[in-house]
Amino acid sequence: MRRVRPGVATRGALTSVAAGEAYEEPKDMPRLWHVTLSVSGPDVPLTDLRRALEQLAHDHPFLLTSRYASDHAEIRYWEEARDLHDAAAVALRLWGEHRQTAGLPPWEIVGLEVIDRETYHQRIAEGYGPPPATPVGVHPF
User: Fold this and answer.
1) pTM for this one?
2) Which residues contact 51 (CB under 8 A, 6 or more apart)?
3) How many C-beta neighbours within 10 Å does residue 52 have?
4) Distances in Å between the alpha carbon of 98 and those of 38, 57, 79, 140?
5) Can you tell me the distance from the alpha carbon of 84 to that of 10, in angstroms, rounded to the nearest whole number?
6) Mean confidence (pLDDT) of the chain
7) 108 forms bridges with which residues in the sheet?
8) What pLDDT digit, counting tens, does each position of 47-84 carry?
9) Are the CB atoms for 41 and 105 separated by under 8 Å?
10) pLDDT of 74-116, one tens digit each?
11) Quick one: which of 33, 32, 34, 35 has its CA closest to 111?
12) Has residue 26 got a pLDDT over 60?
């Protein structure tokens, strides 16, 4: 048995160091943002649109819900980003970057809302804002 003198640290011992008053949480940590992307364009067959939105959701499981009609769609999801600008930039690229791989129609983005998690939950608690996305998935309007 190894003897240790009081006050002498041994190899492998864990110690706790107080953070002190100067410690601050990093300001550029990612946050969650609720994104609603609205797109529209010429009529397309509903079966083709549904298949494309399902492919997009399969390729990117972060998509929470999609609603669609023959000439417009709405995609809602949570994005992790440092700030609103980063979350909005990702959202604005989503439709165009995945148009070919998912078979999405050549529609334009006509609306974008990006709100932080606290604002989303505050709106829900107050009874307005986007309703919780249930059921999750791809559904007609």
Assistant:
1) 0.75
2) 103
3) 22
4) 15, 11, 16, 20
5) 48
6) 83
7) 40
8) 999 999 999 988 877 778 899 999 999 999 999 999 99
9) yes
10) 999 999 999 999 999 999 999 999 999 999 999 999 999 999 9
11) 35
12) no
Burial code (b: 16+ CB inside 10 Å, e: under 16) for 77-104 equals: bebebeeeebbbebbeebbeebeeebeb
**Amino acid type, 112:** L
Is 21 within 8 Å of 97 (Cβ atoms)?
no
* pLDDT band at 16; cut points 50, 70, 90: very low
Long-range contact list for 116-124, CB < 8 A, 24+ apart?
116/31, 116/32, 116/33, 116/34, 116/84, 117/31, 117/32, 117/33, 117/34, 117/78, 119/34, 120/34
Which DSSP category does 76 fall into? E
Q: What is the pLDDT of residue 51?
A: 96
Structure-block tokens of residue 53: 């939105």
Q: Percent helix, strand and coil across the chain, each rounded to 5?
A: 30, 30, 40
How far, CA to CA in Å, does 134 sit from each of 34, 58, 66, 99? 15, 18, 10, 25
The verdict on whether omega for the bond into residue 135 sits within 30 degrees of 0, i.e. cis, is yes
